[in-house]
Specification:
Layout (H helix, E strand, L loop, with lengths): L3 E12 L6 E12 L3 E5 L6 H8 L7 E6 L2 E2 L5 H11 E5 L10 H10 L9 H11 L15 H13 L5 E5 L7 H16 L4 E4 L3 H4 L4 E6 L2 E7 L6 H12 L1
Helix pairs in contact: 3-4, 3-5, 4-5, 5-6, 6-8
The structure holds adenosine-5'-diphosphate and magnesium ion.
Length: 247
C-alpha cells in the first residue's frame, strides 16, 4: 500500500488575470504520509482555504501536479473529481454543514447515498457504527437543532469517516466552538489518528495546532515553515486538567 496520501509538486493557484491577478498559492510542494495529523496554519489571506480546496479536489490548480492516494488528480474534470472526492476524502467544515430537520444517522448515511459505484452496503448499520465511534451512539435520531455545537461537529466527523476515506480534511473545524469543545474535537481527532486515520486540519488557532503531529505554516501563498511536532500535547489530558480546575 502506498504510504503517501498527498503529494503536490509546485502547485500554484492564480485567481483573476492581468492587473487583478492574485497569486493565492505559489509552487507549493507538500507531501503528507499515511498516519499524520497535520495542521495547516497561517494568517488570514495566506492561502489556507485555497490549498484546502485544491487538496480536497474542490478546485483545480493553475499549474503543478497533485497526486492523491496514488491517483494523479490535477487536470481531471468535474465529474471525475466528484468521484475521487467521494471515494477518497472526508470533509469537516467550520459550520458543520449538516442537513437540518434530518436525523444524525441520516446525515451520516448521505455520502453513501451519493456513491454511484453501485456497491451494496447496509448504509444505516455503517452510519450507526460511525456515530458510535465518535461517541454519539445514544443520539442517532436527534436532529442537528437538538444537538450541541460539539455534538453536531461529531456528527459531521462521523459523516466524514463513514466511507473510510484515505484522508479527512477539516477546514477550521473548531472555528465555531468554545475552548472546551474545541479541545474535545481535537481529542477525537487524536483518537481517530491513533487508529490510523490521516487528518489534515486547517486552523489559524495555535491552541488547536498544538495537538498536531506536524505544523505547516503558510505565508503569502508559500510554505514558510514545515516541522514535525516531537511531543504533541494530548487533548484528552488537557480536558481532564480543565475539568479539574473548574470543578
Ligand atoms: N475566488 C477568489 N478570487 C480571487 N481571489 C481570491 C479568491 N479566493 C481567494 N482569493 C485570494 O487569495 C488569497 C488567499 O485566500 P485564502 O486561500 O482564502 O486564504 P486564507 O484561507 O488563508 O484566509 C487572498 O489574497 C484572497 O483574497
Ligand atoms: Mg480561509
Amino acid at each position: 500500500m502506498n504510504d503517501i496520501v498527498i503529494q503536490t509538486d509546485k502547485i500554484t493557484k492564480t485567481y483573476g488575470s492581468g492587473t487583478t491577478e492574485v497569486h493565492a498559492l505559489s509552487n507549493v510542494d507538500l507531501t503528507i504520509r499515511r498516519g499524520e495529523l497535520a495542521a495547516i496554519m497561517g494568517a488570514s489571506g495566506s492561502g489556507k482555504s485555497t490549498l484546502m480546496n485544491l487538496l480536497g479536489c474542490l478546485d483545480t490548480p493553475t499549474s503543478g501536479s497533485y497526486t492523491l492516494d496514488g491517483v494523479r488528480v490535477d487536470g481531471l474534470g468535474k465529474n471525475e473529481l466528484a468521484r475521487i472526492r467521494n471515494e477518497k476524502l472526508g470533509f469537516v467544515f467550520q459550520g458543520f454543514n449538516l442537513l437540518a430537520r434530518t436525523s444524525a444517522v441520516e446525515n451520516v448515511e448521505l455520502p453513501m447515498l451519493y456513491d454511484r459505484s453501485g456497491r451494496k452496503r447496509d448504509t444505516r448499520a455503517l452510519a450507526v457504527a460511525a456515530l458510535e465511534r465518535v461517541g454519539l451512539g445514544s443520539r442517532l435520531d436527534h436532529q442537528p437543532s437538538e444537538l450541541s455545537g460539539g455534538q453536531q461537529q461529531r456528527v459531521a466527523i462521523a459523516r466524514a469517516l463513514v466511507t473510510e476515506p484515505a484522508l479527512v480534511l477539516a477546514d477550521e473545524p473548531t472555528g465555531n466552538l468554545d475552548t472546551h469543545t474545541s479541545i474535545e474535537v481535537m481529542a477525537l481527532f487524536q483518537q481517530l489518528n491513533e487508529q490510523g486515520i490521516t487528518i489534515v486540519v486547517v486552523t489559524h488557532e495555535p491552541d488547536v495546532a498544538v495537538y498536531a503531529t506536524r505544523i505547516i505554516q503558510l505565508r503569502d501563498g508559500q510554505i514558510c515553515r514545515d516541522e514535525p511536532v516531537k511531543n504533541p500535547q494530548t487533548a484528552a489530558r488537557d480536558l481532564e486538567k480543565l475539568d479539574r480546575s473548574s470543578a
